[in-house]
Amino acid sequence: MEQLKNVTLIKKANHYFDGKVTSRTVILEDGSRKTLGIMMPGEYEFSTDLKEEMEFLAGHLEYKLPGEDWKIIDGSGVFYVPANEKFQLKVHTVADYCCSYLND
User: Fold this and answer.
1) Using CB atoms within 10 A as the burial measure, which of 4, 33, 48, 95 is most buried?
2) What's the pLDDT score for residue 1?
3) Where are the domains of the chain?
């Protein structure tokens, strides 16, 4: 999906890792939530509460899910993170992302 329609945008940005990762929260018409953001080059570890779909629209990075080996995204790609887990990223170029919070 290239375009989000009929949404509510939270203007205040979310800042992580001294501002190297930023995002804005979008609430869809059905009440589901996404964040749209940018990651600067660096190494990061995130924790989840809900299952997450991490969609990268641009960038070169590596990601590591619990119990798995490092995988590469070069350009665009998607991966899923289970609820209540941690995942690691090595971002090599500025990365444009959309995180969807899933309730299943």
Assistant:
1) 95
2) 60
3) 8-102
pLDDT along the chain (104 residues), means of 10: 83 95 95 95 96 97 97 97 97 97 85
In CATH, the architecture of 8-102 is Sandwich (2.60)
Judge contact between 93 and 56, C-beta under 8 A.
Answer: no
Identify the CA nearest to 77 among candidates 58, 52, 101. 58
Query: Measured between alpha carbons, how far is residue 57 from residues 43, 51, 68, 99 in Å?
Result: 18, 19, 23, 11
Query: In 3D, which of 4, 100, 87, 98 has the Cα closest to residue 51?
Result: 100
Question: Six-digit token pair at 19?
Answer: 């501002």
CA torsion through residues 101, 84, 86, 17, sign: positive
Contacts of 69 (CB under 8 A, 6+ apart): none
